[in-house]
Amino acid sequence: MRPSGRSPDSLRPIRLEPGYARHAEGSCLACFGDTHVLCTATVEERVPSWMRGSGKGWITAEYGMLPRSTHTRTEREATRGRQSGRTQEIQRLIGRSLRAVTDLKALGEMQIRLDCDVLQADGGTRTAAITGSWIALQQAIARVRGSALPGRSALTDHVAAVSCGLVDGVAVLDLDYAEDSAAQADANFVLTGRGGIVEIQGTAETTPFSTDQFQALLGLAQHGITQLIAAQKEALGLGETP
């Protein structure tokens, strides 16, 4: 039995609340169980200098954890004067994931910044950030489409992310902290609505895992992503297209 009482193929309770931040062009509070991440999207009428004149837009992300998002207080990275390697890796992952489902040419020469702030952490903060950021991005694009974007949507598909792992030899979906800290192997899957693979991050914590075990994890991830994308659509009242 999992600590949460869930079956191996069950997600934690998922809540995606769009429009959570009053001032941002797009926002979403993404809750995966006790992991809560606030995702906001800011539209800027400029692109990085290396993209000027390209006719393309850009999407980038920043990620951070509030000091008491965990059991003990973590010093702010701004106080230390530098970001950790983990923070840099996660925010690059978020940016790559959202760019993978965005037509940057259709976006036009503007930049959308996604800020993902972890309010409360219980495992899977990066997967919640990616899933919530898609909603924030969709809102931001929809908000400026009439004046600043071409008539067609710049989003080409949904994208969401979920973790899976081997706990006591059993493949399970959507790890919370108790499972993540005890897993023999864990992986983060970033998949699109049409089933495309954006990124897979997998690590054996003890002994190597087999191809069959990886296939079991992938199958669970696909099952979970289908539900997460359905939750995105429900949150925004969308049909079958972004």
The rough form would be described as globular
Which fold name fills CATH's third level, the topology?
Answer: Ribosomal Protein S5, domain 2
Named CATH architecture: 2-Layer Sandwich
Span of the ends, CA to CA: 37 Å
Strand content: 25-35%
Largest sheet: 5 strands, mixed
Q: How many structural units, i.e. domains?
A: 1
The Cα radius of gyration reads: 18 Å
The helicity comes to 25-40%
Give me the secondary-structure topology:
Blueprint: E1 14-18, E2 26-32, E3 35-44, E4 58-65, H1 77-80, H2 85-99, H3 104-107, E5 111-120, H4 125-148, E6 159-167, E7 170-173, H5 177-180, E8 185-192, E9 197-204, H6 211-236
Parallel strand pairs: 4-5
Antiparallel strand pairs: 1-2, 2-3, 3-5, 6-7, 6-8, 8-9
Structure summarized in a few sentences:
Its EC number is 2.7.7.56. This protein is of the alpha+beta class and 242 residues long.
Report on this model:
The protein is of the alpha+beta class and about 240 residues long. Helices cover about 30% and strands about 30% of the residues. It has a single domain, classed as 2-Layer Sandwich (Ribosomal Protein S5, domain 2). It has helices spanning about 75-80, 85-100, 105, 125-150, 175-180, 210-235, and strands at about 15-20, 25-30, 35-45, 60-65, 110-120, 160-165, 170-175, 185-190, 195-205. A hairpin with a 2-residue loop joins strand 6 (about 160-165) and strand 7. Helix 2 crosses helix 4 and helix 4 crosses helix 6. The longest helix is centred in the last third of the chain and has 26 residues, at about 210-235. The protein is globular and about 55 Å long. It catalyses: tRNA(n+1) + phosphate = tRNA(n) + a ribonucleoside 5'-diphosphate. Belongs to the RNase PH family.
